[in-house]
Amino acid sequence: MSVEEHDSIDIVAVDEAGGTVVLSLVEPRSWGERGELLPDLQAKLSTYLTYALDGRLLEDYPQVKDKRIQFRLHYAQPPGPREEQFLRLARERYLDPEGIEWRQDLLEE
Fold first, then answer.
1. CA 47: distance to chain centroid?
2. Torsion of CA 61, 71, 73, 96, to 10 degrees
3. What is the pTM of this model?
């Protein structure tokens, strides 16, 4: 699993206590110094948005109806400045207006 695999959803989990469905993106690679993985991240996030908003999430997991959606990025190294700038814009333009939460977490070994 990695953001390199643009057309797949890495992990879907339901947090019953929190009333949230969590769609996790996993990136075990280094982000690099010049935004080398930024195209992968952009494509992967687009796949997640489409999946969450076009009804496929509910088709695959009807039990998540009426649950909040959270995207969570799990990484081996924190994203660099270019990735963070992209993620900030993506949250402002696409996630926040749709009520999709965003979290980032260090991958645990």
1. 9
2. 170
3. 0.92
Element (H, E) at 68: strand 68-75
The answer to whether the beta carbons of residues 95 and 102 sit under 8 Å apart is yes
Q: Are 103 and 79 within 8 A, CB to CB?
A: no
- CA–CA separation, 34 and 26 (whole Å): 20
Q: Are strands 11-15 and 20-27 parallel, antiparallel or unpaired?
A: antiparallel
* C-alpha closest to that of 52 among 95, 1, 15, 3: 95
- Can you tell me the distance from the alpha carbon of 10 to that of 24, in angstroms, rounded to the nearest whole number? 6
Chain segment 22-42, per-residue pLDDT in tens: 999 999 998 888 888 999 999
